[in-house]
């Protein structure tokens, strides 16, 4: 019996020792797995976009800039829209994530966690299957959950440097789902904690506004290098020529516009390919809608064809780019257009022009608002609205062809700026923009655009800017402030990243990125100063 008890104690001791050794071994393995290591591939970057890559212009521009600086660039995100053509190059690889399942039959509190888990798994697999660990992981925020956590973990394991590009605050967008409680809602509080915890420490932080940088540094005590990188358009965004406008409407938009029931009898007559509703290649005969002449008469017609020019009888073209989400209140625009229509009808003929508004983009509220538009414009005589989606190569041409841009964006955090206005400014297109905090970092009221607070003020601005169209002195004055892209000076190569140019200088994306981000990614970490 004594020997049996001894044997039992001995076996128990051996078992405890074995468990202790196994526990230590597992702990060592976990630490070895998680500890940072310097094994990344220099001059490489993974860009994580938890959204449609083709509808994430800033992140596509980042990828283009990294590739032009000889970085092997992997872009991870969802498909849907075609990326910009410049990303079709050997140094750029796009990794598409599987679309998350549609769980509309579950309440948000159930479907959201399921979606998060699946996204976490997809992103983890893509980042871990990159053969050579990238030197940098650039992640777009928001969305914050789960990207910030998974990027933090992968960076720890693979020895990458994380750069967070702060577009907005994810928890502030989530708070819009709960208008009664807002930021006091439990889910919003968890989201805020998550975003602060996993976003606080990174190698570097990029901000779209000075206001966002100052807020996050003060409230969250962000660690790492901090750089304000205002949105700027690439050089392909510029004012369109009459030739470019003619080709856009004759070759790309003619079919779309001609099938819109609301536009029948509204636009001036045209005769493609000689004329469109906005351009003509010869005299008034080119606008005739009569059948084409016989072959024997073509020689004389071709002799009369000239380079395209803008038609004096064209309608004013307004463009509003949108993602059709709750942070844009289209009821303001519709009310303003209704008021403009009434004023145009009551004004002497020729004082105010007809107005065609093209609403671009895709999003959840598109069908709702376009149904409302359809009912309203049954009564309108001077205004029409159409919605369409343009490919990446056509969108800048449309902006460059427009007379005025409209922005209804209101930041959920009051700390970010609308990229759509940046694109418009790149095309020398003045804007009327809905007012919110920090908008003055982009729109200089009375210089490059006008700021409005409600529908009544917007309708008054439309009337002021469009009176006497196409000869509109006030509109021309605003446009003159936006110098063409080709005339914008590039900054000196040795200009420090912290240096801010005068607000009168409008840099291209390439010049702005080279001045602020290039020194950051080529920094010699051992000396903590830029490489030469």
UniProtKB/TrEMBL annotation:
<keyword id="KW-0472">Membrane</keyword>
<feature type="transmembrane region" description="Helical">
    <location>
        <begin position="103"/>
        <end position="125"/>
    </location>
</feature>
<dbReference type="Pfam" id="PF13692">
    <property type="entry name" value="Glyco_trans_1_4"/>
</dbReference>
<keyword id="KW-0328">Glycosyltransferase</keyword>
<keyword id="KW-0256">Endoplasmic reticulum</keyword>
<comment type="function">
    <text>Participates in the formation of the lipid-linked precursor oligosaccharide for N-glycosylation. Involved in assembling the dolichol-pyrophosphate-GlcNAc(2)-Man(5) intermediate on the cytoplasmic surface of the ER.</text>
</comment>
<feature type="domain" description="Glycosyltransferase subfamily 4-like N-terminal">
    <location>
        <begin position="63"/>
        <end position="227"/>
    </location>
</feature>
<feature type="region of interest" description="Disordered">
    <location>
        <begin position="267"/>
        <end position="298"/>
    </location>
</feature>
<protein>
    <recommendedName>
        <fullName>Chitobiosyldiphosphodolichol beta-mannosyltransferase</fullName>
        <ecNumber>2.4.1.142</ecNumber>
    </recommendedName>
</protein>
<keyword id="KW-0808">Transferase</keyword>
<feature type="compositionally biased region" description="Low complexity">
    <location>
        <begin position="275"/>
        <end position="289"/>
    </location>
</feature>
<dbReference type="GO" id="GO:0004578">
    <property type="term" value="F:chitobiosyldiphosphodolichol beta-mannosyltransferase activity"/>
</dbReference>
<dbReference type="GO" id="GO:0005789">
    <property type="term" value="C:endoplasmic reticulum membrane"/>
</dbReference>
<dbReference type="InterPro" id="IPR028098">
    <property type="entry name" value="Glyco_trans_4-like_N"/>
</dbReference>
<keyword id="KW-1133">Transmembrane helix</keyword>
<dbReference type="Pfam" id="PF13579">
    <property type="entry name" value="Glyco_trans_4_4"/>
</dbReference>
<comment type="pathway">
    <text>Protein modification; protein glycosylation.</text>
</comment>
<dbReference type="InterPro" id="IPR026051">
    <property type="entry name" value="ALG1-like"/>
</dbReference>
<feature type="transmembrane region" description="Helical">
    <location>
        <begin position="12"/>
        <end position="34"/>
    </location>
</feature>
<keyword id="KW-0812">Transmembrane</keyword>
């Amino acid at each position: 019996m004594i020997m049996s008890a001894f044997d039992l104690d001995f076996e128990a001791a051996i078992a405890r020792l074995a468990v202790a050794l196994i526990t230590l071994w597992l702990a060592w393995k976990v630490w070895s797995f998680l500890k940072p290591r310097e094994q990344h591939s220099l001059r490489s970057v993974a860009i994580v976009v938890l959204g449609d890559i083709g509808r994430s212009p800033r992140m596509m521009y980042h990828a283009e800039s990294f590739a032009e600086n000889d970085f092997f660039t992997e872009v991870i995100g969802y498909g849907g829209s075609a990326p910009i053509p410049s990303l079709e190059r050997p140094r750029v690889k796009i990794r598409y994530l599987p679309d998350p399942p549609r769980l509309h039959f579950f309440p948000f509190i159930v479907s959201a966690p399921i979606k998060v888990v699946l996204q976490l798994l997809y992103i983890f697999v893509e980042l871990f299957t990159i053969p050579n660990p990238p030197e940098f992981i650039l992640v777009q925020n928001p969305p914050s959950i789960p990207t910030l956590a998974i990027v933090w973990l992968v960076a720890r394991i693979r020895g990458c440097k994380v750069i967070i590009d702060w577009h907005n605050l994810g928890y502030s967008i989530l708070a819009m789902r709960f208008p009664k409680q807002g930021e006091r809602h439990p889910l919003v509080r968890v989201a805020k904690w998550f975003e602060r915890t996993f976003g606080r420490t990174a190698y570097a932080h990029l901000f779209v506004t000075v206001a966002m940088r100052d807020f996050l540094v003060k409230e969250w005590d962000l660690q790492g290098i901090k750089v304000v990188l205002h949105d700027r358009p690439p050089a392909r965004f510029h004012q369109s020529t009459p030739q470019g406008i003619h080709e856009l409407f004759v070759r790309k938009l003619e079919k779309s516009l001609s099938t819109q029931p609301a536009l029948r009898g509204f636009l001036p007559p045209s005769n493609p390919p000689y004329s469109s509703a906005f351009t003509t290649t010869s005299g008034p005969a080119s606008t005739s809608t009569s059948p084409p002449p016989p072959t024997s008469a073509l020689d004389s017609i071709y002799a009369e064809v000239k380079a395209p020019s803008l038609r004096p009888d064209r309608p004013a073209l307004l463009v509003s780019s949108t993602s059709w989400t709750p942070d844009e209140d289209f009821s303001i625009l519709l009310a303003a257009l209704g008021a403009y229509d009434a004023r145009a009808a009551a004004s002497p003929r020729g004082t105010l022009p007809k107005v065609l508004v093209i609403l671009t983009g895709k999003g959840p509220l598109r069908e709702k608002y376009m149904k409302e538009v359809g009912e309203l414009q049954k009564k309108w005589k001077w205004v029409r609205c159409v919605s369409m989606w343009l490919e990446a190569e056509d969108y800048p041409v449309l902006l460059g062809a427009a007379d005025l841009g409209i922005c209804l964006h209101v930041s959920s955090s009051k700390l970010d700026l609308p990229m759509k206005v940046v694109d418009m400014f790149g095309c020398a297109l003045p804007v009327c923009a809905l007012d919110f905090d920090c908008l003055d970092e982009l729109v200089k009221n009375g210089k490059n655009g006008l700021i409005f607070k409600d529908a009544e003020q917007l309708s008054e601005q439309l009337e002021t800017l469009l009176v006497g169209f196409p000869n509109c002195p006030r509109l021309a004055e605003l446009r003159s402030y936006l110098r063409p892209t080709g005339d914008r000076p590039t900054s000196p190569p040795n200009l420090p990243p912290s240096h801010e140019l005068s607000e009168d200088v409008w840099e291209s994306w390439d010049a702005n990125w080279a001045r602020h981000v290039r020194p950051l990614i080529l920094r010699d970490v051992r000396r903590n100063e830029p490489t030469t």
